[in-house]
Amino acid sequence: MTGLIALTGATGFIGRHLLADLTARGYRVRVLLRRPTSVPEGAASAVVGDLTRPINMAAALSGVDAVVHSAGLAHANLGPTPSGAPEDDYRTLNTEATRKLAEAAARAKVRRFVFLSSIRAQVGASAPGVVGEGDPPRPTDAYGRSKLEAERALAETGLDWVALRPVLVYGAGVKGNMAALLRLARSPYPLPLGGLAARRSLISLESLSGAVDAALAAPGPLNRALIAADPDPLSLPEMIASLRQGLGRGPGLVPVPAGLIKLACRLTGRDAQFARVAEGLVARADGLAALGWRPAGPTRDGLARLARDGG
């Protein structure tokens, strides 16, 4: 489909890329901004308003065919939450803001609502086996619970909705754990990470944009959550090796037992970061594949390109 898309979060890491990609695919994009700012390049128009107090949503959604909602409070590893009370802040900014926007979209008779949720709505920082869409959701923290509650709020609106649950997203401008990995790869020293064998699924910004396009274009009602993950999970040593390949260097990895690294991380207060990157979380995007979605390219190549282009 092509038409007018209302996009939230257009100034964020994912939203900036979605704006450029959706525009390139022929969509007209109206960005919904939280505060007055210059209209991002590529936007057809802009409306300013606070999603937690959506007083001008009727104007914002007038003539809109679909909403792509990528705004929200990111995971706590990116910094403290606004009030210092994660459960309350995540509920306000992720759950209730999504509910209010969706209710306004229903009143405006928007055709489809695409919500950028998270794999954390389904599982914790790591998971045994392969995570599939048929598995019951079991979020383990306030962030994941807020995303799952937002999905359930969508289901109550009567809208045709889809929630995309991306795994760790990488691409230009990445922050958080992937940015930390990129810094590690750029270091000139050998790294004691060669013994870590657990694999994790990743998804590139390009693949995620393709998933959003597939969700927008799919015929018929969707009304479900879909995992968004590239199909080739990598271990942490493979990620580092791919990044260093992009830098024109060898892997430079030393095989130290995983238990020793985990102990060192626990003693230095970094056990949570270790779990988010080094422990296993493999997910399958079967639902998206059934809609015709295909990844933008191999994860190894994408990581090499990320490092080569400067991150």
Automatic annotation (TrEMBL):
EC number in record:
5.1.3.2
Give one GO term, molecular function aspect.
UDP-glucose 4-epimerase activity
Q: Which InterPro entries match?
A: Epimerase_deHydtase, NAD(P)-bd_dom_sf, NAD(P)-dependent_oxidoreduct
Task: Give the record's keywords alphabetically.
Answer: Isomerase
Q: Say if the entry is tagged with keyword Isomerase.
A: yes
Q: Where is the NAD-dependent epimerase/dehydratase domain?
A: 5-218
Family annotation (Pfam families): Epimerase
What's the protein called, per UniProt? UDP-glucose 4-epimerase
- Organism this protein belongs to: Methylobacterium fujisawaense
Question: What lineage is on file?
Answer: Bacteria, Pseudomonadati, Pseudomonadota, Alphaproteobacteria, Hyphomicrobiales
